[in-house]
Design a protein that fits this description.
Blueprint: H1 4-9, E1 24-32, E2 51-56, E3 62-67, E4 73-79, E5 83-88, H2 90-96, E6 100-102, E7 111-115, E8 119-121, E9 124-128, E10 140-143, E11 149-152, H3 159-166, E12 178-182, E13 190-197, E14 203-212, H4 214-220, H5 223-241, H6 248-253, H7 270-282, H8 285-289, H9 306-313, E15 332-338, E16 346-352, E17 356-363, E18 369-379, E19 382-388, E20 401-410, E21 416-425
Parallel strand pairs: 1-8, 1-9, 11-12, 12-14
Antiparallel strand pairs: 1-4, 2-3, 2-5, 5-7, 6-9, 10-11, 13-14, 15-16, 16-19, 17-18, 17-20, 20-21
């Protein structure tokens, strides 16, 4: 029999008698999980008056709703033994999701799956999100074997997770020139690219920075990320492979050459259209499923030969030309702190593979910045060093313990390399 008591929460009727109602209950408490252990502990603040929905295990059948009391407690009663999902009401989730993430649901979503037999507890704990807002000082980072660099500026989605999503798409020789920044500030989803013209008149020194937002990740998975990476991919091949940033060959393949609507709006920008085509043709299943921005043109999959053109022709240099080699990844090596241990002062040294803007920081055992020794200072290739006087940025002397020196070097094309070394202070 259906879930009589849960249905009764939103209105009587439904032809269910009291004798037919189930006896199971699902209850729980909404709370701030300040120690991040997924358990409601003494002293942790309760979250009152939040609204919860009850669905079947597939979240296709809606059974009812209830509102937590002043102590954050909610309950659904009169339930049959079955699989259910309890969900926080959407507006309540959106009010807190920028700064809080579930610690009890097993995902980023405010949904708890419950296999009920008798009584079950389904608490909703929320932990604060830790973020960095300083470019070059991410919470996590990943230097991929293909040369791509990824930084995540929150402790919810790791840099490696972001990279793995990107790799579900088409990635090629542009990878060493691309750096991805996840959840950095409030800039939203965007991509910036650059290329120089060499002495021979050819485009060279390509670089791309892709910015992906946390809220887009929550709302649409990696669809926005795939679109922005489509910019990095397509512009690399436009500049470096085709040596033609007008996208002339692409517009011909899409039968849009000379169309008067081109560049009249965001949706009609060739750069936006090819990034959308990349997402639709080469992105993950989630990315491909998102709707197309420009509804006046055929979906990418419906354009005869477009996938083959982008996959093969667009990524191959035209006859009689040679593509510019992919940029070498910036490298930092030989990191050291001397003397060891540091007592009154020390020297951080490193070697960079080329000229670069260098930032050097000292971090404590928790990863927080203690002192910024250099901030975007231009340094030549080779060995360099900077002294540390054992003081914080506030001028206080640090105590004994384990610290980390970090060097971030960014060359003229935007390629960035990071290396760190741990050391002790006595």
């Amino acid at each position: 029999m259906a879930v009589a008591a849960a249905l009764a929460i939103i209105g009587a009727g439904f032809g269910v008698s009291a004798a037919e109602a189930g006896t199971g209950t699902i209850s729980g408490t909404a709370f701030q999980d300040l120690n991040r252990n997924g358990v409601l502990d003494s002293g942790e603040p309760r979250i009152p008056n939040q609204q919860f929905y009850l669905f079947d295990g597939t979240q296709t059948v809606y059974y009812g709703t209830t509102v937590a009391d002043g102590s954050g407690r909610y309950s659904f009663g009169g339930l049959d033994a079955a699989s259910y999902v309890v969900s926080l009401e959407d507006s309540a989730w959106r009010a807190i999701r920028t700064d809080w993430v579930p610690s009890t649901t097993g995902s980023l979503r405010p949904d708890r799956a419950v296999d009920l037999s008798g009584a079950a507890t389904a608490d909703f704990g929320w932990r604060p999100i830790v973020r960095s807002t300083t470019l070059g000082n991410p919470i996590s980072q990943y230097a991929a074997p293909n040369g791509m660099r990824v930084e995540s500026y929150d402790d919810v989605v790791t840099a490696r997770e972001v990279y793995d999503r990107v790799m579900l798409g088409l990635v090629g020789p542009e990878a060493p020139a691309v750096k991805i920044h996840f959840d950095l500030g409030s800039g939203g989803d965007t991509a910036t690219t650059s290329a120089s013209i060499g002495s021979d008149g050819r485009y060279e020194l390509y670089g791309a920075d892709v910015y992906a937002s946390y809220l887009s990740w929550l709302d649409s998975g990696d669809s926005k990320l795939a679109h922005e990476y489509g910019h990095a991919w397509s512009l690399y091949h436009a500049y470096i492979t085709q040596q033609d940033p007008t996208f002339a060959s692409y517009l011909e393949a899409r039968d849009l050459t000379g169309d008067a609507r081109l560049n009249t709006s965001h949706a009609w920008s060739p750069r936006e259209m090819i990034a959308e085509d990349y997402r639709q043709l080469f992105g993950s299943a989630t990315a491909r499923a998102a709707s197309q921005e420009n509804n006046a043109i055929l979906p990418a999959a419906s354009v005869p030969g477009l996938r083959r053109f982008l996959h093969d022709t667009f990524t191959t240099a035209p006859a009689g030309t040679a593509p510019e080699p992919a940029p070498s990844a910036m490298a930092v090596s030989g990191m050291a702190v001397n003397p060891s241990p540091v007592r009154s002062s020390g020297v951080v040294s490193w070697s960079a593979s080329g000229p670069a803007r260098v930032t050097v920081t000292v971090l404590n055992a928790k990863g927080a910045t203690v002192r910024t020794l250099l901030a975007g200072v231009s340094e030549p290739a080779g060995t360099a060093s900077v002294a540390w006087d054992r003081l914080t940025d506030a001028g206080r002397r640090v105590g004994k313990g384990t610290f980390t020196a970090r060097v971030v070097a960014t060359d003229g094309s935007g390629a960035t390399a990071t290396q760190s070394v741990s050391f002790s202070v006595a």
